[in-house]
Amino acid sequence: MRDIEKVVKRFREAGLKITPQRLSIFNLLQRNRTHPSADDIYREVLKVHPSISFTTVYKTLQTLRDMGELQELSINPERSHFDPDMSEHAHTFCRSCKQIGDLEIAPETHLLKLPNVPDSFEVHSVQVHAVGLCGECR
Ligand SMILES: [Zn+2]
Ligand SMILES: [Zn+2]
Asked: Could you name the CATH architecture of 4-71?
């Protein structure tokens, strides 16, 4: 996710209103490394905006994802998690506590340059994750 001012500009250009609720969501996501689920974000925003609906939070996350400001991670079979870090990186997923961690990848490893992808196919994202048990759960 880029700077909040840039995200705000893109929302305005798309004809979307910037509400205090939406700004709170942007603020929560900026530089957030915890890979929160929509529910995690909803519960946090609720502390500041007690009348916000889950639908508002979810739709804002989907808009950010569609704009390419947010990655939706389909690692946890139970729910999606969101990652504002759009740089190419992999993840760890603990089966027990469901924590998602960041895994740096070597700069020479180009995850998006998969061999054998047909020329006619346009790749939007590639997700790589290691599933297992974290140090604490072992
Ligand atoms: Zn764990
Ligand atoms: Zn990540």
From this structure: Orthogonal Bundle (1.10)
